[in-house]
Amino acid sequence: MEAEILLKYANRREAEAVARAVSPDNVKVPCGLSVETKASGSKVFTTISYSGERVGTFISTIDDLLSCISVAERTFSAIKRSI
User: Which DSSP string do the residues of 19-72 spell out, in sequence order?
Assistant: First the structure.
């Protein structure tokens, strides 16, 4: 199974911040699972690959990643409002 997620931001700086915020998730993953996130310009690309049998693991990984991205985006929005 494989999923590709593309997110677009207002600028390169925001995209890089989001990619860095979720990059620790790219390190520790279950056997058979691969998560790679990178920024390019104002876009963030994530590829999730899973060779296991449990579709729940694959779906949970996508859900966890999107939750982390959402938290990062809300944090950046709060910081922008306070400046």
Answer: HHHHGGGGTS--TTEEEEEEEETTEEEEEEEE-SS-HHHHHHHHHHHHHHHHHH
